[in-house]
Amino acid sequence: MRATTHPVHGPSLAGTPAGERLDGLLLRRLAARIGPAGLRYALGHSTVADPAPVATLRFRDRRALAGLLLDPEVHFGDAYAEGRIEIEGDLVAALEAAYRTIADDGRAGPLAWLGTWRRHSLLRARSNVHRHYDIGNDFYALWLDRQLLYTSAYFESPELSLEEAQVAKMDHVCRKLGLRPGETVVEAGCGWGALALHMARRCGVRVRAWNVSHEQVVYARERARREGLADRVEFVEGDYREIRECCDAFVSVGMLEHVGRRSYEELGRVISGSLERAGGRGLLHFIGRDRPHPLNAWIRRRIFPGAYPPTLTEVGRGVLEPAGLSIVDVENLRAHYALTLRHWRERYERAVSDGRVGFDERFRRAWRLYLAGSEAAFRTGSLQLFQVTFAPSGLSTVPWTRRGLYADEAGLSWSAPRS
Amino acid sequence: MRATTHPVHGPSLAGTPAGERLDGLLLRRLAARIGPAGLRYALGHSTVADPAPVATLRFRDRRALAGLLLDPEVHFGDAYAEGRIEIEGDLVAALEAAYRTIADDGRAGPLAWLGTWRRHSLLRARSNVHRHYDIGNDFYALWLDRQLLYTSAYFESPELSLEEAQVAKMDHVCRKLGLRPGETVVEAGCGWGALALHMARRCGVRVRAWNVSHEQVVYARERARREGLADRVEFVEGDYREIRECCDAFVSVGMLEHVGRRSYEELGRVISGSLERAGGRGLLHFIGRDRPHPLNAWIRRRIFPGAYPPTLTEVGRGVLEPAGLSIVDVENLRAHYALTLRHWRERYERAVSDGRVGFDERFRRAWRLYLAGSEAAFRTGSLQLFQVTFAPSGLSTVPWTRRGLYADEAGLSWSAPRS
């Protein structure tokens, strides 16, 4: 690593030899803390750089640099949003480089855990969701697909459009569950309702879909009415813990991340309670980890309050095992989420360029960082995307093989006699 | 439940009213302990029966009945092997009924765990394997497929023959690993060598295959020589903990059940150490559980000393997470193991009928019970069969989808560029 120190632009020591020395010292310390990520760090004319850097982190003032040394995770996001840290070069590549270096290091402050161990009360669950999802449907409509799916798409091939890949994701879920006309489905955490409506239309099932976000439920009900599906899809404004109904299939896409770990057993009881009927099966689709680690602190504070991406092990031990559920199939789709996020970010940036995104510059930069950081996290394997299919332990109608998922048939069969 | 008490054939109280009362009492107590399994229990002319029983447990003497009440798991197997308990009716159906009832109950004595928590020393690992696998190749040749695969087959459809299904299993494993000509594979626990030879012949890879069973290694080397594969497949007589080599793919089929849980982290280190090269991936195929529970005590003592079927969670937390490995795919194939066991039992019974199985009657009955009991365990979901595919966390070449597994192609691609 080479360090070049030039005249300095710090607020009080600007241009002085002392300020120059301080900036150089802070930059070198930061570079050492992050490790050999392949980045350049710059404040005024002072720079410190790894060999062959992929991008430059430029600090607007000395406070931004010092803050990053004191509280890296949260401060970085805030300072970036405020424009006091700028990334010159490819944003995703820069974040990816940092993620890879930090992942190798494997550090996880013990205090960082505290925030995620509290049990989510119904009230807090609602407030967490409101903060994120009730920003306004119009905002999400700017960069999600037409049907407003705010979870990973499934790209049967990487060339698919986002619209196609979101439909393919819904089909993939339906095929894994082997939904048949006349069956009933419970969906926990249904977003703007696209999957519930898709299942009803494509598979002829009846759906009760739950969501605590008032804005989303209003939107989904209106869409069901408009598409003539209101008699087959009921949107319930309520928490998954209030579910008390039997069904043939239980599905939840992108909700588990928002369920506190202390509530996992309760979720398991809700699922097994809903699958008491013979032939019941379920699917959980969630952002996860390879080993336990809290979500990035800045995203947890500013973007997704209360969110936690669990390991498969945490879901097995917390949700499925105590509920007597047997894991039938697990698919890790993290590359698909990275690609989904790239589509979202491209659409988002177009909307920003066209002046279609409201809010202030700080919000717009925060959102840019969140989308780019998430893409980098999935690309580097810091985050995973798991689809877990399960059934009550000992259920005798599990599909014989998974071939039906990939043939031009109606998906898996959960009802064929075995052998 | 109705109880009918007839004249009794107990050893000392035979024919007396006191003996008659005692037998009736013991039978009723046993029926109550097992629960409503749909069985009939008989000693002499005394019987107790659930409604519509599927089979009868007949006790030859009062000691057999009393022993079952005192130590059900171990005593049942021993008494059955000695012919002091007879099952009249379908053996698998009777065991299945009992498994289902006991599973609902969910009891697991805390002491039953002790035997499985000890760390397996290299010496004990060898001795455990010798006891089971060195009974003699000739014995296994009587009822396994031609290639001597002593792990679950994969029936692409239930109509496949056992020979076809074992080849399909090997192909399924090769396709999951996406083996390419010139790559290197390490196999831990290779049995009689069929998979190692199959991978070399079918995929053009070089294999180092490890096994602690001397008899099996001798057999496998001879087969490699005979088939002209000795230059590409090396069979090493040694424990997996001695593996110190890099490879493109690590595979282990049916060994994890014999690895003590205290050695899981060590196994993880061996695996991740062998997959340091870019593009490395691995597969574990093992008998497991939906929730932690020791293997049936009788099978553990008499058939598979030291064996333990782990949950996915135990494997995740014990083997994969500490080693920095990411789960890419999990498939539960328990129905395939039930069908495999049915094939094995039918072949075994034919060999017994034809007088081709040596040993004494006690051994032959023990083996019959083991095969039937295992089939019942997989049918009821008391046991599972997991295939777990994994790769070092963050590896960027995981297959895009699983379609390649089910297309007439060469399996998954672990080397294609992503998006």
What does this structure look like?
- The structure is a homodimer of 419-residue chains.
- By secondary structure, chain A is of the alpha/beta class.
- Chain A has helices at residues 17-34, 62-70, 72-81, 91-105, 114-117, 122-133, 137-141, 162-177, 194-203, 214-226, 264-274, 297-303, 312-320, 334-353, 361-380; strands at residues 2-4, 39-43, 46-49, 55-59, 85-89, 184-188, 206-211, 233-237, 249-253, 281-288, 325-332, 384-392.
- A 7-stranded mixed beta sheet of chain A has the order 8-7-6-9-10-12-11, with helices on both faces. In chain A, strands 1-3-2-4-5 form a 5-stranded mixed beta sheet.
- In chain A, strand 2 (39-43) and strand 3 (46-49) form a beta hairpin.
- Chain A is elongated, with a radius of gyration of 23 Å.
- At the A-B interface, helix 13, strand 11 and helix 14 of A face helix 13, strand 11 and helix 14 of B.
Concise overview:
Two copies of one chain form a homodimer. In chain A, 43% of the residues lie in helices and 16% in strands.
Q: Count of helices of chain A?
A: 15
Specify the CATH class of the largest domain in chain A.
Alpha Beta
- In angstroms, what separates the terminal alpha carbons of chain A? 65 Å
Count of domains of chain A:
2
Oligomer: homodimer
Tally the beta strands of chain A: 12
The unreliable regions of chain A are 1-11, 105-120
Q: CATH superfamily of the largest domain in chain A, please?
A: Vaccinia Virus protein VP39
Helical content class of chain A: 40-55%
CATH fold call of the largest domain in chain A: Rossmann fold
- Percent in strands of chain A: 15-25%
Average pLDDT reading of chain A? 87
Strand arrangement within the widest β-sheet of chain A reads 8-7-6-9-10-12-11
Query: Rough shape of chain A?
Result: elongated
- Name the CATH architecture of the largest domain in chain A: 3-Layer(aba) Sandwich
Rg over CA atoms of chain A: 23 Å
